């Protein structure tokens, strides 16, 4: 079938604001669970230094899968009281006869499909959704950033997201909560983490094999970038886009509760034109090797200061625009 596209968002504002975009992944997940199925997706490890997979068997379980994880996800899952390899657990659930929705990156979906095919397991009950992927940031960037926050606040992190909504759909904020009750909130692209995420991914991600027509999922999910307030389907709280690759994807879309989740047809060409990472990879920086060395030897913050032209320029870029914005708001008031 030809590529089809839809836009959508939760009608309930609280659910919408709790989602990274319009809540598309959650809408698909809730639809499968209501049919008696279960959902596999990414969550943070208990110490927030890594990401792994979890299985949601009810609506409440979906909370741990919400939110964007911008790091590579370990192919492991805590199941039946212990950590196990991910693919055999997914296969076991498929063989039990239940519907299964697997959400991950394009490479994750491809690996799962390859595994179940090699074992001769039927995929009739399997739905797959991948994400428009920029390439996850190098794991060490994330781990060092978490370390730096815990040192600064002298407390363990109990909640973390790299994409909190504060003023609506954009801009994105890093938000963390601590055992002490303290909270941290900063614009994503005003942090070392955000700057690194823009450029430094895994080596393989600069030559991703699962872009454009090579997506192997039923549905590819992302933000509906390019949508403006005067266009149909816009919501200031965020809008998801669904690129549907096959009839299985259409079947999954029909399972969404339209009373709770607003869905509109969209133009695939427009969607792809405003989501370049659907079909192209991030360009590998010329200083990639030296960044890895600096990350190990002088740490994330010093490595990013070095790349911004020095400490004065770094802090000018980070803080002066924010102070100008605050001054302008005060004048307008």
In short:
By secondary structure, the protein is of the alpha/beta class. It folds into two domains: 4-136 and 201-278, no CATH class; 139-200 and 285-332, no CATH class.
Q: Largest beta sheet: what is the strand line-up?
A: 5-4-3-2-6-7-11-12-1-13
Number of domains: 2
Low-confidence runs: none
Portion in strands = 15-25%
The rounded Rg comes to: 20 Å
Task: Tell me the overall shape.
Answer: globular
Distance between the termini: 54 Å
Average pLDDT across residues? 92
**Element string (H = helix, E = strand):** EHHEEEEHEHEHEEEHEEHEHHHH
Task: Decide which structural class fits the backbone.
Answer: alpha/beta
**Number of E-type strands:** 13
> Sheet with the most strands?
10 strands, mixed
Q: What share of residues is helical?
A: 25-40%
> Can you count the helices?
11
């Amino acid at each position: 079938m030809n590529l089809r596209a839809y836009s959508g968002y939760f009608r309930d504002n609280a659910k919408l604001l709790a989602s990274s975009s319009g809540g598309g992944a959650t809408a698909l997940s809730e639809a499968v669970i209501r049919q008696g199925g279960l959902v596999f997706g990414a969550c943070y490890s208990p110490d927030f230094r890594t990401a792994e997979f979890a299985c949601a068997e009810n609506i409440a379980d979906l909370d741990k899968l919400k939110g964007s994880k911008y790091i590579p996800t370990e192919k492991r899952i805590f199941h039946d009281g212990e950590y196990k390899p991910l693919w055999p657990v997914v296969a076991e659930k498929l063989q039990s006869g239940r519907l299964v929705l697997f959400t991950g990156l394009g490479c994750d979906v491809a690996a799962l499909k390859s595994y179940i095919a090699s074992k001769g397991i039927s995929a009739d009950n399997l739905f797959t959704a991948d994400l428009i992927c920029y390439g996850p940031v190098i794991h060490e960037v994330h781990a060092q950033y978490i370390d730096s926050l815990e040192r600064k606040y002298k407390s363990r992190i109990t909640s973390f997201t790299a994409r909190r909504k504060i003023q609506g759909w954009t801009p994105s904020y890093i938000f963390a909560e601590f055992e002490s009750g303290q909270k941290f909130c900063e614009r994503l692209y005003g942090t070392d983490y955000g700057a690194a995420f823009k450029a430094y991914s895994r080596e393989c991600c600069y030559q991703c094999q699962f872009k454009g027509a090579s997506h192997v999922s039923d549905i590819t999910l992302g933000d509906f970038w390019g949508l403006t307030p005067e266009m149909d389907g816009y919501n200031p709280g965020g809008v998801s886009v669904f690129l549907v690759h096959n009839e299985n994807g259409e079947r999954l879309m029909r399972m969404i509760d339209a009373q709770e989740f607003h869905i509109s047809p969209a133009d695939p060409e427009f969607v792809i034109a405003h989501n370049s990472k659907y079909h192209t990879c991030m360009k590998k920086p010329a200083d990639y090797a030296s960044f890895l060395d600096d990350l190990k030897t002088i740490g994330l913050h010093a490595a990013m200061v070095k790349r911004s032209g020095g400490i004065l320029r770094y802090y000018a870029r980070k803080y002066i625009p924010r102070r100008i914005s605050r001054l302008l708001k005060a004048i307008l008031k």
